[in-house]
Design a protein that fits this description.
By secondary structure, the protein is an alpha+beta fold. The protein has a single domain, classed as predicted glycosyltransferase like domains (Thrombin, subunit H). Helix content is about 15%, strand content about 45%. It has a six-stranded antiparallel barrel with strand order 1-2-3-6-5-4. The longest helix is centred in the last third of the chain and has 12 residues. It is globular. The relative contact order is 0.18. The N terminus is likely disordered.
Length: about 120
């Protein structure tokens, strides 16, 4: 069988979803600051999970950009360190949470558990 014919009849490979946590389509206020900068980006999440969020923004940041973020969950600020993991120019950024301040992780988990019921 020729390589061309073999490729045409082989099943398509579907990329595995790399997310460790399910994401919920929920909009919460978030403030992002590039590490070392005092300039805030005040946005809303398009989706949110225990491990990160997606924010829609026209002027996206490059993958690897380190951030300080504050999520506002029922008027409670949750502060995290984060990193840009996806960039879709003129559309938005995927952000992975890397370190929570204080009890932030538990506050986020309770918030998400409460809205996914």
């Amino acid at each position: 069988m020729s390589l061309q014919k073999q490729q045409a009849t082989s099943p398509a490979v579907v990329p595995r979803d790399r997310r460790a946590h399910p994401r919920l389509e929920v909009q919460v206020q978030v403030e992002l600051r590039k590490e070392g900068s005092d300039v805030p980006y005040r946005l809303q999440t398009a989706d949110l999970s225990k491990g990160g969020c997606y924010v829609q923004m026209m002027m996206t940041m490059p993958v690897g950009t380190r951030l300080k973020a504050t999520l506002w969950l029922d008027d409670v600020p949750v502060r995290v360190r984060a990193q840009v993991v996806t960039s879709h120019p003129q559309f938005g950024n995927g952000v992975m949470f890397t370190e929570f301040e204080g009890t932030g992780k538990q506050v986020l988990e309770r918030y998400l558990d409460g809205i996914s019921v």
